[in-house]
C-alpha cells in the first residue's frame, strides 16, 4: 500500500501534457491487438482461464461449477467438464498436456470453493481423480514445471 501511494503521489506531479502523450502511446499500441473471436463462456462469471502448452486449447473455470475446454483460435466448445458443485477458482493445464502426454493421461487440475481439487484428462467430461484433504476453499492450483507436482492454495 505504501508503494502504491508513493506511485500515486508521483503520478500527481507529472505534467498533464506528459500524461496525455503517454495515454496516446498506449492507445496506439492497443490498436495493434487483434480480437479473433469473442464468446460467452458461461451463465455465471468466468473466474479463470488458462491456455494449453501447445496453444491449441483454452480452459475456463466458472462460478457455475463448470469448466470448459475451447479450441483456439476459433473458440469452439470442445468439452464441458462436470464435477464441481460450487464456484471453481481455477483450472490449469499440466505442462506437457497436448504436447507429450497421451489423451488419457492427467492433463488438467481444477479447484473449487468447497475444498475440492479434481484431475482431468482430455478424453472425458468427468474427473479421473479427486485430491482430498482440504477442509476449506481452494482458490488456485499450479503445476510444477516438471508436471510431477501440483500445488494448491486457499
Automatic annotation (TrEMBL):
Q: Which UniProt keywords apply?
A: Repeat, Ribonucleoprotein, WD repeat
UniProt WD repeat ranges: 81-130
| PROSITE patterns attached to this UniProt entry | WD_REPEATS_1 (PS00678), WD_REPEATS_2 (PS50082)
Gene3D superfamilies the UniProt entry points to: YVTN repeat-like/Quinoprotein amine dehydrogenase
- GO CC term, one of those recorded: ribonucleoprotein complex
Under the heading SUPFAM superfamilies, the entry gives: WD40 repeat-like
Q: Say yes or no: keyword Ribonucleoprotein present.
A: yes
Q: Which InterPro entries match?
A: WD40/YVTN_repeat-like_dom_sf, WD40_repeat_CS, WD40_repeat_dom_sf, WD40_rpt
The name this protein carries in UniProt is U4/U6 small nuclear ribonucleoprotein Prp4
Recorded source organism is Goodea atripinnis
